[in-house]
Amino acid sequence: MLSERRLQVLRAIVQDYVGTEEPVGSKALTERHNLGVSPATVRNDMSALEDDGYIAQPHTSAGRIPTDKGYRLFVDKLAGVKPMTAPERRAIQNFLDGAVDLDDVVARTVRLLAQLTRQVAVVQYPSLTRSTVRHVELLALAPARVMLVLITDTGRVEQRMVDCPAPFGEASLADLRARLNSRVAGRRFADVPKLVEDLPDAFEHEDRGTVSMVLSTLLETLVEENEERLMIGGTANLTRFGHDFPLTIRPVLEALEEQVVLLKLLGEAKDPGMTVRIGHEIAHEGLNSTSVVSVGYGSGGEAVAKLGVVGPTRMDYPGTMGAVRAVARYVGQILAES
Amino acid sequence: MLSERRLQVLRAIVQDYVGTEEPVGSKALTERHNLGVSPATVRNDMSALEDDGYIAQPHTSAGRIPTDKGYRLFVDKLAGVKPMTAPERRAIQNFLDGAVDLDDVVARTVRLLAQLTRQVAVVQYPSLTRSTVRHVELLALAPARVMLVLITDTGRVEQRMVDCPAPFGEASLADLRARLNSRVAGRRFADVPKLVEDLPDAFEHEDRGTVSMVLSTLLETLVEENEERLMIGGTANLTRFGHDFPLTIRPVLEALEEQVVLLKLLGEAKDPGMTVRIGHEIAHEGLNSTSVVSVGYGSGGEAVAKLGVVGPTRMDYPGTMGAVRAVARYVGQILAES
DNA sequence: TCCTGGCACTCTTCGCATGCGAGTGCCAGC
DNA sequence: GCTGGCACTCGCATGCGAAGAGTGCCAGGA
């Protein structure tokens, strides 16, 4: 077990390194933090921390930098979440309050988060699977062509085209629309399949094919996982990384474009609260030298999607976590109101 | 006026520079292209080209690189559009054919264009202002709350919430829905305002406020310019630029996030055909060392939106133009079919 | 037992001088 | 108007040495 002072040394190293972006030495440490001991003592502590794998030196006779393990300890034990200041909170609220629709909420959230953290922001669209159905609309575009529009309680709208096997009368359509809505409106997506199971039985034989097809399209839309979209912003902040970074920025940009990777990453964070993944804890190669801070957000008590930030492992964790948490909270409020 | 051979020299310089990314000298030129003259002669030609501002040397005793003016001449006079090969065309078609809805078409187009050109691709969503209305749907979510859903002929769906001044009966809603659709379905957006002008008169006095409000929301949605969205992809290709590029990639990423800038840029290209803007021809600082190749696309004869590519001024213009044109053509077909 | 000052050692970084090579510009000759 | 030759200019890589930062270790003291 590490002594109290060694933990303080580690904390100081992380803070200084995040601030200066340069390996930090024993002398500088004692000057900037009053640890009450001499550089030599700190050197001993550092040596111990290095043996335990919390810090490392890029090359002999350079200062130390934290390892992923070091950051992990820092995040778990040594640092809290820095709360937003009152003006910041007001700014967040003002900025988000202007949103006109769901797309706009997401777009504004991304911009906001990127600006606050000066890093890359990622916001997942409210997921379908946890939401409830607000309304299902059916429109006859042609005698044998129906457009299915699904509206969720989070304001999301999905549409699908259905090519019917047989012409489908306006009356049947109205009937189906009414029956469908009375059964599923307000219900959770997960419950829908069972609720509509026997619906085709209520129709004339000639219409059943079409009804089944509409229903299966609806169910497809509900489960369609790759329809989980997300919005990314603040990629320009990647250039703030290092000086070495042609090498490091590239795979990150590539990973960001592969939304699948990000969705998987967000999905893996089981913790309903905040999750921080650091460096090699992220399976995906190319994000190995980045950290991801993510948290669920949602209207009401339950999280419907995630949002977060991607940045260098050398990031201001307390500040980033504070911003992410605050933004998630306000977005939840906005969604609950609309 | 430049002699034929000098134009050939310019063409050779552009081609070599695009290929090698290094300033090209007189000796290398004569070796790689059989111009039929000696390096000394080429040097004289280069000197003349430099005096006219078509090429420049980064520093004394280095080869020449084309200036923006040089690229302009190259694009206008010296190079054609390189057609896609048959396999490439098949690949484009296959890739786009799998799309399920409008979002998917746009997403696939961006990916495709980025891959083909190995540059940053930009695709504007089919613009509302030039489309026609397919259907307007009204849903009562609460006694005094109506959701307006607008469906366009390009498959785009816009929704807006309307808070009514007074409760609005289901019958009135159905009436309004029917009247509205009979008037505007199939009509161009630009014509809608006049078509619905007198619609409130047909309703009871108590409902007129709500009807007016629904209509004005509809009109707002139609003209809302900042709802012109676009999708961007292939930003990782920016890293292929130079070695110097922490400086150059940053403003480009920033400009790309400012979608306003890109929309303005795409909007400025009046030419219905392909437009190429090179370097300083682009007003926006930060895109000064990039070129933009854009073209309109659309279902049927008319362009409904633009798509294009952003890359370094040092790009393969013929190839890029070929890819952009081909993709635009196929996207148009896809939209016409759906 | 733990902290401290001192000291030698290591390694990176920076500045500077040098040599090389690519490329140019110009000129005289064909 | 083209060509070969030649001197000149720079940028770039290389090598060397000094400076500086930081470490590790050790002996001495609380």
Protein architecture, described:
2 copies of one chain form a homodimer. The first copy, chain A, starts with a helix and ends with a helix. Chain A has helices at residues 4-20, 26-32, 39-51, 68-78, 86-97, 102-117, 170-184, 192-196, 205-223, 246-257, 259-268, 317-337; strands spanning 55-56, 65-66, 120-124, 133-142, 145-152, 157-163, 230-233, 275-278, 290-297, 305-312. In chain A, helix 2 crosses helix 3 and helix 6 runs antiparallel to helix 12. The longest helix of chain A is centred in the C-terminal third of the chain and has 21 residues, at 317-337. Chain A contains 12 helices and 10 strands. Chain A has 338 residues and is of the alpha+beta class. The first copy, chain A, has 3 domains: 4-67, Winged helix-like DNA-binding domain superfamily/Winged helix DNA-binding domain (Arc Repressor Mutant, subunit A, Orthogonal Bundle); 86-126 and 228-337, Beta-Lactamase (2-Layer Sandwich), CATH 3.30.450; 129-224, Enolase-like, domain 1, CATH 3.30.390. Chains A and B meet through strand 4, strand 5, strand 6 and helix 10 of A and strand 4, strand 5, strand 6 and helix 10 of B. Chain A binds a DNA duplex (30 and 30 nucleotides) through residues 23, 25-28, 37-41, 43-44, 46-47, 57, 59-63.
Report a brief summary of the structure.
The structure is a homodimer of 338-residue chains. The first copy, chain A, is built from 12 helices and 10 strands. The first copy, chain A, has 338 residues and is of the alpha+beta class.
